[in-house]
Write a structure and sequence with these properties.
This protein is α+β, with helices and mostly antiparallel strands. The protein has one domain (41-203): Tumour Suppressor Smad4 (Sandwich). 27% of the residues lie in helices and 39% in strands. It contains 6 helices and 14 strands. The chain has helices at residues 13-18, 24-33, 57-64, 67-73, 75-88, 145-157, and strands spanning 35-44, 47-49, 52-56, 92-98, 101-107, 109-113, 117-118, 122-123, 135-140, 166-171, 173-178, 183-186, 189-193, 196-209. The strands form 3 sheets. Strands 2-1-14-11-4-5 form a 6-stranded antiparallel sheet. The longest helix has 14 residues, at 75-88.
Length: 212
């Protein structure tokens, strides 16, 4: 039975990724007349996710973002909380393993995307899709908070992966190790901790969506 999606959340990133309208009546029309589309799921340490799993800055934003703020300000609450978290952000060391290779990084955030959008419209990668049978990883290896701010326009467009202080990788599986366990945010909820094993589950779910 395919899944029908109504845009009733705060950010509605899955709906945005699938091209489902923000209007509930229009979304209902998609459920009634849309096409079945098989999408991938992300998986980390036994937890599934649609959009992104990440550690670092995004976890701090999640910890600071209250339900009251989301109800009152909607997507704007993400921006206000992110500004505060960016000011306080500190780099951490991690090891990323992919395709038989390992790289040591000093990073503000590691994000592993299954879909295209997250965090209220940020883009995982310029060519990311939720049915491309792969994961897109990026690591923000900046030293100063103002460098993150300068990256934000590129993150909205998905062109940040070409910046010199952003490491970008693609693959079907990743491992991330840190010196001490760090929380992992999956689609806005803290559900896992490092060491982490990420993988894609291709065509895992049937959903009703507009024609591509």
């Amino acid at each position: 039975m395919p899944l029908g999606i109504l845009p009733l959340g705060t950010a509605n990133d899955l709906a945005r990724t699938l091209g489902i309208p923000a209007s509930v009546p229009d979304a209902c029309q998609i459920i009634a007349t849309g096409q079945i589309r098989h999408i991938d799921l992300g998986w980390v340490n036994g937890k599934h996710f649609f959009n992104v799993a990440s550690l670092g800055l995004s976890v701090e934003i999640t910890l600071q973002l209250s339900k009251e703020a989301k109800r009152r300000w909607g997507v704007l609450a993400y921006a206000l909380t992110a500004a505060r978290a960016i000011w306080q952000a500190r780099p951490f060391k991690a090891e990323i393993r992919c395709n038989g290779e390992s790289v040591a990084v000093k990073t503000i955030q590691i994000a592993v995307g299954n879909g295209r959008y997250y965090g209220g419209g940020l883009t995982v990668a310029e060519d990311a899709a939720i049915d491309d049978r792969r994961l897109d990883l990026y690591s923000l290896e900046t030293e100063r908070w103002w460098q993150i701010l300068s990256l934000l326009p590129a993150v909205w467009r998905g062109t940040h992966t070409s910046w010199p202080n952003v490491r970008a990788l693609t693959g079907t599986e990743f491992e991330v190790h840190t010196r001490r366990p760090r929380a992992i945010n999956t689609d806005g909820e803290l559900t896992a901790r490092t060491p982490a094993h990420f993988r894609v589950i291709p065509q895992a779910l049937a959903v009703l969506a507009p024609a591509k």
